[in-house]
Amino acid sequence: MYKKARSIILALVIALTALTAVSNHFYTTTAYGTYDDENNMIIQTYSFTNPTFTPVTLYGETFTRVEMEGCQLYGNANEPRLPVKPLKILLPQGTAVKNIVVEPSGEQEISMGGLAPIELGVGAYRLDQDPPNEPPVPSYDETSLYPGSLFMNLGVQHFRGYGILILNLQPVQYLGSTHTIRYYQQMTLKVELKQASVNPLYRGLPEDQREVLNKVDTPISSVLESYEIDETPRFSSYDYVIITTNDFKNYHGTYDFDDLIDQRESQGLTCTYKTVESIYDEYDGVDHQEQIRNFIKDAYLNWGTTWVLLAGDVEFVPIRYLYDIDGGDGTLTSDIYYQCLDGNYNDDGDGYWGEKFDGVDGGWIDLYAEVYVGRASVDCYEQIENFVKKTLEYENSDWGSDVYLEEVASVGEYVWSGAGGWGAGYVELCIDNHTDYGQDTHGIPSNVYTITELYERDMNPDWSKQDIMNEINDGLNYINHLGHASPTSCMKLSPSDIASLTNTEYSMWYSQGCHPGELQAADECIAEAWTVYEHGGFAAIMNTGYGYGSGSDYDGPDNRYAREFFDALYYPEEAISRIGVANQDSKEDNIWHVNESYKYMYHVYYSTELFGDPYVQIKGAEDFGADFDWGPDYPRTNEPVYFIDRSMGDESRDWDFGDGSHSSSRNPSHVYTNEGVYNVTLTIWGGGETDSCTKQVEVWDNWPPHVIATPEFYAGNNP
Fold it and tell me: Could you tell me if 60 and 158 are in contact, meaning their C-beta atoms sit under 8 angstroms apart?
């Protein structure tokens, strides 16, 4: 995976920064490069080790894989698959890229005489297709060095106003006619900049800067300092917004959206509603989708909004159809349109939204999210009740006591005959640490969860629909699945099968199948049925379009994203436990090869859709959250009550004991002088996040008699 710079590294870099006078102006120097402010140029030098050669088998034939430490493998279909060095470079504020030059040094050549032919990239295939069972045929100019350039420019992305240059260095070239490798021991990258307008989505918030440090290579200190931080509060803040209809907003039942708002507020968020009717009255746009997006952009800028729940099926809260840049669907429904807020997603105004160069001023389409969006695809009051109930019950379950949370299902079906044809081969790579195909991911930890493996590859007879229904009814934390699917069938289940489930413990379902999230194709597609029916689960991450696998191995496009999703949850340096953030992170971690031909990486970027509340944390992966206990069990006045902080990730805290008293200690004690029921609230802060937990503590001098049973009682030693 693409390892991220951490704030502590930046602090060290800034501490070691040296200012050196050269030609009457200053260079700011770090271990990674310099920013020449007079010539407006970033200069960074990279060193590379010698390449290694490994035989690999494709379609029964042997090829030579070329690898290099610290690099990833990149290969367009039928062209040499070679190492690249992905870079994510923070640009100074108010600049754009004018020109890029790479100056190599330490050129070396290695003859591959005696080795098998070089490995070629292999195309991906829809899961409803049978790929060819024959090796790829070279389709590039073998008389010229490949690739012809020493870098690949994937454009500038913006995250909350910070410019990030996405670029791959290409330190290895191959000459097919002589079977020779040329590589460079060092490359100096020079990025010439020009003045540009400050990005209109820049807010200057400290938390935005903390977030961008997790998305870029360790930045040059003076580049980071070009972004002025405003420490003063500027918002009548709403962290969390539900966008829904007037009717759904005003519904009040056993469970309703007010309960979800109350839950989020108890977790320390400020929350509000915005109805689509008011959006259509107040905001401009060429259609309702653009009006909603313009509201979200306004809420992000002026309310400080981070979390958005679209509460309604597409006839109530419309979805945007995006152009399928490299896949087989033509268009794809995708709520990423509401997350990535730069530009209007249709720069050329041709009616095809989300084309590759529909970004600002014809630039690359915006793929970095300012806010995190999920959808509650409800279309009636009953479905509101179901969605809210399941979400709250999952959130209120307790890791350590609710044993079902330790149960996970890994499900793989037969997909096609030949290489890459077993679902098991893909989903296995989402468990524990794997470095296959140059992708380093830390997946579902087998020492934390009990993983039930339903792999048709290893079973005779195959697992049945009833087998997976039994697992769901017995209780699961989540399911990871790859197999055949359609809008109304996935993992051998139909919407009516989901309706017949009886489980009362709710789970998340991640599937790489074709179209189970195509919510406009059926009254309730699989993802909708799973999240809005009475039973089933609280969230689903599923494709609105085709799922794709690999015809040569288990490096399928969809699985690249799935691996990074679970890596976001469980890799300690990421520790992203909220499903909306983890889903988006899985996409940004794959952006360096989004342009690989016949790999359909843009398609999966758009197609992988979250059905559920983006703020929910996966149990067992939580990295941040407030919780506490206290003792004794029966507190009395004028006697100390001892509070124990059970929170995760807290750096500071405030205890509100409900009687006007406060404490910032981790495990304080408190004496109540009057009887009563006290609402005790623990609020924590850490890593730019905040969370709160409120519990009622009863204090009485004359508690009713209570009995504590002893082991002897349960052993039968009782009257």
Answer: no
